[in-house]
Design a protein that fits this description.
Elements: H1 2-23, H2 28-43, H3 57-67, E1 71-72, E2 75-76, H4 81-100, H5 106-130, H6 141-170, H7 174-206, H8 210-243, H9 245-248, H10 256-270, H11 275-286, H12 309-323, H13 330-337, H14 348-362, H15 371-380, H16 388-399
Antiparallel strand pairs: 1-2
Helix pairs in contact: 1-4, 1-5, 2-3, 2-4, 2-8, 3-4, 3-5, 3-7, 3-8, 4-5, 5-6, 6-7, 7-8, 10-11, 10-14, 10-16, 11-13, 11-14, 12-13, 14-15
Length: about 400
């Protein structure tokens, strides 16, 4: 599926380039202006993890505006759908080059998504507008309604495409990925659609001077989000460093907290948790063993899952007390505190962390041949200690080779 999507984007880009080389560049001023806007938006993008919100809203809005451009300063434009694809492809690649130099992967998927979504929007709008099929609606409420319906269709296409690319790249379940993409449409997605449409309408009435007027506010917002993402990344690194304290002190095997966090996040995605819930789950999984630092004598191999239940609860409560002093959301501390409770009394994130922690303890850090036996022991303990659905989701994650690295 990933190869198919990349091939489709490449085919459209080549077809657009051939069309321009054969018939020339229509309205070069428009193409250069919108291309520059898209490239600047891509250059200013933040480095998002797979599944994160739209990292380059200015580039997305510029591509959408060019796809929906029918006039410039009151004069009809003559560029078509393939022309739009060529400009968007070149501009997006130009802006993404510094990011691609750090490795393709998600960045290349982002370029493919941008090209295919812009191509879909252009194919839906440009032929209909150029043939005069919208003359009886423009201007007026009918034209506004048409644009609204078209934007909904484009947003759905983009959400489906984004979920497909992430599913093919990571192996995460498709259903939860699509739901998360649709949720994002209510936030940054709606802002991109609204800004792209307003830019297209403003350029149609006032010319290219409208581009900076309507794009600069979104660009400033994008830069603010980029700084926010940097702060969030630093915050996550701080929590990960704190989690490694148990490794350094010799209370847990090396990398135990990171393995539990990766397994927990993969299981959480399998169960359809939202992005915010996954963040809480990851932080709690990273710090789930922090209570062991309060122990005088370390637990052998750090395997709390093998301790008596009362001792597990004591360590969990000690860990929750420490977590509450770190400034993370209180929900993270609750997950850490309740990871040793009977699963029917736990919130879902605590059930997931407990299961992932027990698996890593029983499997000896993922030693070859130990995983199947550990999983079977978890299944036998689903009467009280582990939720059956969580254990089966863990089994599906492991059957696919473990947590995705993407």
């Amino acid at each position: 599926m990933l190869v198919l999507a990349h091939s489709a984007a490449a085919f459209l880009a080549v077809a657009g380039t051939v069309r321009v080389l054969g018939w020339g560049l229509h309205e070069p001023g428009n193409a250069l202006a919108f291309g520059a806007l898209i490239a600047v938006g891509e250059l200013a993008r933040w480095r998002a993890a797979p599944g994160e919100r739209e990292p380059a809203p200015v580039g997305a809005a510029g591509a959408l505006a060019y796809a929906l451009l029918g006039e410039c300063g009151g004069q009809p434009t003559s560029h078509g759908a393939l022309h739009v694809v060529m400009v968007v492809s070149v501009a997006t690649l130009a802006g993404a080059l510094p990011h691609l130099s750090r490795g393709p992967g998600p960045v290349l998927d982002h370029v493919v998504r941008r090209v295919l979504t812009a191509g879909f929007a252009a194919v839906c709008f440009q032929p209909l507008y150029a043939s005069g099929g919208l003359d009886h609606l423009h201007p007026g409420a009918g034209y506004a309604l048409f644009l609204l319906l078209l934007l909904i269709l484009i947003a759905l296409c983009d959400a489906v495409l984004g979920a497909v690319l992430l599913w093919a790249r990571t192996g995460y379940p498709y259903g939860p990925l699509l739901r998360e993409e649709l949720r994002a449409m209510a936030g940054i997605g709606s802002a991109v659609c609204a800004t792209g449409t307003v830019i297209a309408l403003a350029v149609a009435a006032a010319g290219l001077w409208a581009l900076p007027v309507f794009s600069v506010p979104l660009l400033l917002t994008q830069l603010s989000f980029r700084r926010y993402e940097g702060v969030r990344a630093t915050y996550r690194q701080t929590i990960a460093s704190l989690a490694r304290a148990t490794d350094i002190a010799g209370y847990t095997p090396s990398g135990h907290a990171q393995r539990v966090a990766a397994l927990s996040t993969a299981v959480g995605r399998e169960m359809g948790l939202t992005r915010a819930e996954l963040t809480v789950l990851e932080y709690a999984a990273l710090m789930h063993d922090i209570g062991q630092l309060s122990l005088v004598d370390p637990v052998p191999a750090g395997a709390t899952a093998l301790l008596p239940l009362a001792e597990q609860r004591r360590i969990a409560l000690l860990g929750g007390a420490v977590v509450r002093q770190t400034g993370v959301p209180p929900t993270v501390a609750v997950v850490v505190e309740r990871q040793a409770d009977p699963y029917r009394e736990q919130p879902l994130p605590a059930r997931i962390v407990r299961t992932a922690n027990a698996y890593d303890d029983l499997a000896g850090g993922g030693c070859t041949g130990a995983g199947a036996g550990a999983l079977e022991r978890l299944r036998r303990a689903t009467g009280r200690d582990f939720q059956p659905e969580v254990v089966e989701c863990l089994a599906r994650v492991l059957a696919r080779g473990g947590p995705p690295s993407g």
